Amino acid sequence: MKTVVAFSKTLIGALLVPAFLYSSSAHSQETIRVSAQGGSYDVCVKDVYFDAWEKETGIKVEVTSPSYDLGVWRTQQETGKPDWDVATADVGLLHELVKNDWVLPLDRDLITRDGGMIDLPGLIPEIDGKIYALPSELFATVVTYNSKTYAGETPKTWADVFDTAKFSGKRMFSNMVVDFGVLEVALLADGVAPKDLYPLDVDRALKKLDTIKSDILWYDFGTQQIALLQQGDAVIGAGWDGRVRALQRDGGTVEFSPTQAIIKPDLWVLPKGGNFEVGAKFLSFIDNPERQAKFATCVGYGPVLRKAYDFLPADQKFTVDPNNTEGFVVWNAEYWAQNAREVTARFNEWLTR
Question: Are 137 and 330 in contact (CB under 8 A)?
Answer without folding.
Answer: no
